[in-house]
Design brief:
The complex is a heterodimer of chains A (141) and B (594).
Chain A (H helix, E strand, L loop, with lengths): L1 H60 L2 H10 L41 H4 L2 H15 L6
Chain B lengths: L5 H25 L1 H15 E6 L6 E2 L5 E14 L6 H15 L3 H9 L2 H4 L3 E8 L1 H15 L16 E10 L7 H4 L1 E3 L8 E3 L1 H5 L1 H4 L4 E6 L16 E4 L3 H18 L3 E8 L4 E8 L10 H4 L8 H4 L9 H10 L8 E4 L2 E4 L2 E4 L7 E4 H6 L3 H11 L1 H10 L28 H8 L8 H9 L7 E2 L4 E6 L2 E4 L4 E3 L4 H17 L12 E10 L5 E14 L6 E8 L7 H4 L1 H14 L5 H7 L2
Parallel strand pairs in B: 2-9
Antiparallel strand pairs in B: 1-8, 2-3, 3-4, 3-5, 6-7, 9-17, 10-11, 10-22, 12-15, 13-14, 16-19, 17-18, 20-21, 21-22
Helix pairs in contact in B: 3-4, 10-21, 13-15, 13-16, 13-19, 15-17
Classes of the chains: A mainly alpha (141), B alpha+beta (594).
Chain lengths: 141, 594
Amino acid sequence: MQLQSLGLFLLGLVAAVMIAGLYLNVTAQASAAGARIQELEAEKEELMIDIAGLRTELGELTSADNMRRRAEAMGFQPANMETAQYLVIPDYPGKNVVMLAPPPVQERPRTLILPAYKESLWDFLFKGALKLIEQQGGLAQ
Amino acid sequence: MMGINRLQGIGYLMALGAILIVVQLVRIQTNVSAQKYSEVAAQTYNYETKVITPERGNIYDRWGSLLAGNTKVYEVGVSRNELGGEKNRETIARAAADILGLNYTEVLRLINGTYEEDGLLYVTLGSNFTPEQVNQLIELNRQYEDLPTPPKGQVNPSLRGMHWVPSLRRSYPEGRLASNVLGFYYYGGGAGEQGGYLGVEQKYEHLLAGRPTKVSVAVNPNAVEEIPDVPPGASIVLTIDREIQAMTEEVLDKAVEESGSKGGTIIIMDPRNGDILAMATNPRLDPNNYSEYYEIFPEDQPLNPAVSLTYEPGSVFKVLTMAAAIDAGVVTPDTEFVDTGVYMAGGLPIYNWDRGAWGPQTMTGCMQHSLNVCLSWVADQLGPTQFYEYLKAFGIDHRTNIDLADERIWPLRLPGDPYWTPLSLATNSFGQGLATTPIQMITAISALANDGKMMAPHVMHSYVQDGRQYEFKSIVLGSPVSAETARTVTEMLAQSLEQEASNALVPGYRVAGKTGTGEIAKGAEGYSTNLTNASFVGWGPVDDPRFIVYVWLQEPTSSPWGSVVAAPVFSEVVQKLVVYLNLPPDDIRLQLSP
């Protein structure tokens, strides 16, 4: 009898330890994932700062002044009116102003999820009741 | 009955203890106050409120060259409650002095302060340190950490408590280039005291700045949630062409120096759509170092005189008077006028620039020789009502509303206004007694280069927001004169340049234009006897204008005349401009035209 009680107690204890262990494991994993997300968020923020900084650095390296100096160092000279030669390129529309992103598009209504799928039971019943009333000629006589 | 032995007693006591702990745990978890405190603690320690300031939008020229961006800088500070002893503090102060260029004593005083004295646990040492400086700090910190453990009673030097946090700062990679157009980003002392100042930076602050968003960020990893994406501010693509801007600034700087001028402005515009291709001014500011502002622009001088400084334009204004008279049918290019050298207006005499009498002249001759007497007569033929109606149609009485901050105007005096006299009609006809900005002048005259249609001048071509590029649509401000008038005046001005073999002529390209030499009013003392404003406005090619250029040199000392100092500047600019615009000489272009 005593052995049976002890066995039951131990079984309960093992079950509790298992649940606690499982809980601890999941919580630890969630915490680790949370900490990693925090790290990644910080990294993302720093990367965005780095990207902006590098873009500006590139802008400095390719500034009008720098490009002119580099071109001159490579033996180029600015084109001038006397030496410029003009070639006709059929159908060439000319240089266009830079497009950094696509132009705006007409937003079309999203039809992926039909309204019926987003209706609550209450909406469905209410709409059904209204429809029925309309069919019978309205509320007032 | 079985007695309870000692071991069982201990077992029961421990079990009871465990049950009591569980009961207490449940009680704490379910107690109303406990729940409230738990929520407060969670809110206080699990989350922190943070304002995410989006990255400020970039500014590009029309081909995508970066004119204004953001660069990485670091804020360096010290967390007082992390500091160790004296050696730690002295090491930080020494590093701050040697690497960051700060004052050793001042840094030591700051970090030795207490919360009770100044209410600070974290003191900021500075906020604009370069990544190179911070890399040196990181390297120094690593060296200190690698030191062997010191003997008992001694401590190693350390930077413990010193922190560096990256952030973005506005940066202008082209330096002074187009700084009058861009304006600058001002970092004020307090909250709300920073933002775009003047130029595009101020005008489009609402687009560039984006929307700062307050978010609750989880500190506790168990409560972590996704931080919402805060989109960056919109980026702006200007109509400015960086290469043309650089060329124009170079020509202007040289012209200002050679003519001994106080300053200068050149605007290049596409008359077909109002695109400003270049807007050069002298002097200019490096927006990366805007603290020099008051040294460069003393006595309320504006950053961008092209839009913010009014002046009496002088004879370039005759273009508008003549266009109005021809459009109204009062004169034709061949109408004759006998110039006797003086014209009485409101009881006072009007003289020519040389005080000479030029005898019989056609209207083209009047423009070619820039005769004040003739233009006063022309204005009289129009009459004040028509004359001022035309000026209003040309926009001389209001702002052009160019998309740059701080556009100013000088009110146009009209008949019936105080200080308007019949003499005003005569003097206004040749650009004296009224004041305009260069942008008003080029906008008005651009109508003659675009078949009578006056386009709204603008510097923004498009902006990029939320992954889409939105284009600015050209706006027609009005049609002050007919297409026929525009072509007639253009032809008259082309002929007048050719007949006088003007310094403004451009080999291979037919251009129309007009010089201007405006006298400068000196308050109650009347007009200056030796200082002038020299201007030139011109456009071309005459048969299909693609550009209009406005030149203004302030108070040149080498010569007071627009024809001597401003006209050659126009010619030099156009000779270079046509190469950038891929515009072949007229004979080649006309052969190529279908």
